């Protein structure tokens, strides 16, 4: 069960890939989460990529590919994995194809206004990574994670200027990748609109993913 969740920043890649990971019991691998952790901990890798992440630029392919290849070789990935935020360039997709065969790409089809709204009101748990939204999915207690009691924070790259940059990168470098996966016949499309409840989108994502994997 090798799955990629694909879509623009703020389109729901994180929320939906976490759901798939829970339901199918396979690890959720988010390159953005991995990078933020390295930056916060001030590791060697963290220092090398800090500038890119903070500016909303893509981290260089060779760095990202090495990190992902290592992660996918872990024993917990034997039954499969959900990738969130990777691949983001043609080079990354090709490097991924060398180490794993992707069976499903869930394409979250999202409009720009949804993106900007979501990102600016997004909050994330500093402990478990659960994603909240002050408008659509607020925590029960302000600033506190419902799941684990951890503290919620706003990502440093969720500012209007950096959001704009991330969107540009997505349109220029990442979105064209869809064609590559469409040619392989592995893409399922899910439309995300402002009015659609998160649960409904998650349900559709799960159903379509299971169908594509032939596990009903
Ligand atoms: P989003 O999709 O909401 O922009 P992510 O958490 O997936 O956020 O990524 C945050 C940042 O981490 C990106 O802006 C980029 O700097 C870096 N990053 C994450 N994944 C990749 C990748 N596959 N290739 C290059 N850079 C990446
Ligand atoms: Zn939490």
Automatic annotation (TrEMBL):
Residue ranges occupied by any Adenylate kinase active site lid domain in the UniProt entry: 122-157
UniProt binding sites for ATP: 10-15, 122, 131-132, 196
Domain remark from Swiss-Prot or TrEMBL: Consists of three domains, a large central CORE domain and two small peripheral domains, NMPbind and LID, which undergo movements during catalysis. The LID domain closes over the site of phosphoryl transfer upon ATP binding. Assembling and dissambling the active center during each catalytic cycle provides an effective means to prevent ATP hydrolysis. Some bacteria have evolved a zinc-coordinating structure that stabilizes the LID domain.
Catalyzed reactions: AMP + ATP = 2 ADP
Localization in the cell: Cytoplasm
Gene: adk
UniProt region (NMP), positions on chain: 30-59
An annotated Gene Ontology molecular function: zinc ion binding
InterPro entries referenced in this protein's UniProt entry, alphabetically: Adenyl_kin_sub, Adenylat/UMP-CMP_kin, Adenylat_kinase_CS, Adenylate_kinase_lid-dom, P-loop_NTPase
Residues involved in AMP binding: 31, 36, 57-59, 85-88, 92, 155, 166
Protein name in UniProt: Adenylate kinase
GO process annotations (BP): AMP salvage
């Amino acid at each position: 069960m090798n799955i990629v969740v694909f879509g623009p920043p703020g389109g729901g890649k994180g929320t939906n890939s976490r759901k798939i990971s829970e339901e199918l019991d396979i690890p959720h691998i988010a390159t953005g989460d991995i990078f933020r952790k390295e930056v916060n901990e001030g590791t060697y890798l963290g220092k090398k990529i800090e500038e890119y992440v903070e500016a909303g630029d893509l981290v260089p392919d060779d760095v990202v590919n090495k990190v992902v290849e290592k992660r996918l070789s872990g024993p917990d990935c034997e039954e499969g994995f959900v990738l969130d935020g990777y691949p983001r360039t043609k080079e990354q997709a090709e490097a991924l194809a060398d180490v794993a065969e992707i069976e499903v790409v869930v394409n979250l089809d999202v409009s720009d206004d949804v993106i900007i709204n979501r990102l600016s009101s997004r909050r994330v748990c500093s402990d478990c990574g659960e994603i909240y939204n002050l408008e659509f999915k607020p925590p029960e207690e302000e600033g506190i994670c419902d799941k684990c009691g951890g503290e919620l924070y706003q990502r440093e790259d969720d500012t209007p200027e950096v959001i704009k940059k991330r969107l540009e990168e997505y349109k220029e470098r990442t979105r064209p990748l869809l064609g590559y996966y469409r040619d392989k016949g592995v893409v399922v499309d899910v439309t995300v609109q402002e009015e659609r409840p998160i649960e409904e989108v998650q349900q559709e994502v799960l159903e379509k993913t299971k169908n594509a994997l032939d596990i009903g």
